[in-house]
Specification:
This protein is 67% helix and 12% strand. It contains nine helices and seven strands; from the N terminus they run H-H-H-H-H-H-E-H-E-E-H-E-E-H-E-E. The protein is rod-shaped, with a radius of gyration of 38 Å.
Length: 344
């Protein structure tokens, strides 16, 4: 605010001193063709009156509700108020002339001269009004744009958080189904499975606070989940996951790969009597993280409902906009889910 007020007063003083310079130069070089000290005094008094008048007008505008929008109404208001201000300034200008020249000037005042003075002052005051109105209109327009951007950002964040919270019961439901089968078949393995499940649940409860997590951390949770599913499939599920040290430097939205792994098990491996393989390959290309998840089976578009793949696309768009991509396709008796994620 101090910065704005300082600029305002600099513009005010520069503008009215400029008016004095223009009028004195006009009279000195083109009308009287000589310097008249009394006129310098007159114009200084008029500039002082104009400065006080326009500052009072600004005070009035700041305390009056005005809908700052680009339309004809605002400019009609500007024109009418410019004419009113110019008329008031003409009165002050004539008072300044009377102060300097006394009664002789009072006797020379006529209607035509008053109209001419009003028109003359409208030029100076009109410039002030136009600049001030444009400043307020542009500021309001910027405020609206910033509020719109903030609202969109908050909306995306809220949507992202909602998607995260929906994933917790989703994984819990599927993992419990896996353990249910183990309780009867192998109690010892079921106890180990419960430990793994608790670790997965801890992860899904904690990741909702994070926007991005290290890739290695995500892959570790995927391994736990697939290990849990391997117990249920009794040797019919094979898992291959690449992990390298450089992955600690890469980040990924939490539970993206976990969702893809769960989807691969449910819609791919789970539908094959002989089981199948899930393989995750990762590489970096030009600051873009490429992740390919392969699973045995076939991809059908109708399997795109529920939490699944639509939510992955929504989450990626909420975080990265159009910079990230996700494609899922069939490729020679297997499904390939391709993720390309920029490293922020």
């Amino acid at each position: 605010m101090k910065h704005v007020n300082r600029n305002y007063w600099i513009c005010q003083l520069a503008g009215w001193l400029g008016m004095v310079l223009i009028e004195v130069s006009n009279y000195t070089f083109f009308i009287a063709r000589k310097f008249i000290p009394e006129l310098l005094l007159v114009f200084c008094l008029q500039a002082l009156a104009g400065l006080l008048l326009m500052h009072s007008y600004r005070w009035y505008l700041k305390r009056t509700y005005i809908k700052w929008q680009f339309n004809s109404r605002i400019w009609i208001k500007a024109f009418i108020e410019t004419a009113i201000l110019a008329s008031i300034q003409t009165i002050f200008a004539n008072i300044a002339l009377i102060i300097v020249y006394g009664k002789p000037y009072l006797e020379q005042i006529n209607f035509i001269e008053i109209v001419g003075n009003i028109y003359n002052w409208m030029r100076y005051i009109g410039v002030w009004v136009i600049i001030y109105f444009m400043y307020q209109l542009l500021r309001e327009s910027n405020n609206i744009e910033r509020a719109k951007i903030l609202a969109e950002k908050n909306s995306k964040n809220a949507e992202l958080e909602l998607l995260k919270t929906q994933l917790n019961p989703h994984f819990l439901f599927n993992a419990l189904n896996s353990i249910k089968a183990l309780v009867i078949l192998d109690p010892e393995k079921s106890r180990n499975a419960i430990v793994q499940l608790s670790e997965i649940l801890r992860f899904t409860l904690q990741y909702s606070r994070e926007k991005l997590i290290p890739l290695n951390q995500e892959l570790s949770e995927v391994e736990k989940y697939l290990s849990l599913e391997q117990l249920r499939f009794a040797g019919r599920l094979k898992v291959e996951i690449q992990q390298f040290n450089w992955m600690n430097q890469c980040t990924i939205p939490p539970a993206i790969l976990l969702t893809l792994a769960e989807n691969a098990v449910k819609h791919g491996i789970g539908k094959l009597e002989e089981g199948g393989t899930i393989k995750i390959l990762t590489e970096m290309k030009e600051n873009m993280l490429h992740i390919n998840l392969y699973n045995s089976g076939a991809y059908l578009n109708q399997e795109n409902g529920g939490i699944g793949l639509k939510q992955i696309r929504t989450r990626l768009e909420a975080i990265y906009g159009n910079e990230a991509s996700f494609i899922i396709r069939n490729d020679t008796n297997q499904v390939v889910a391709e993720l390309i994620i920029p490293q922020l």
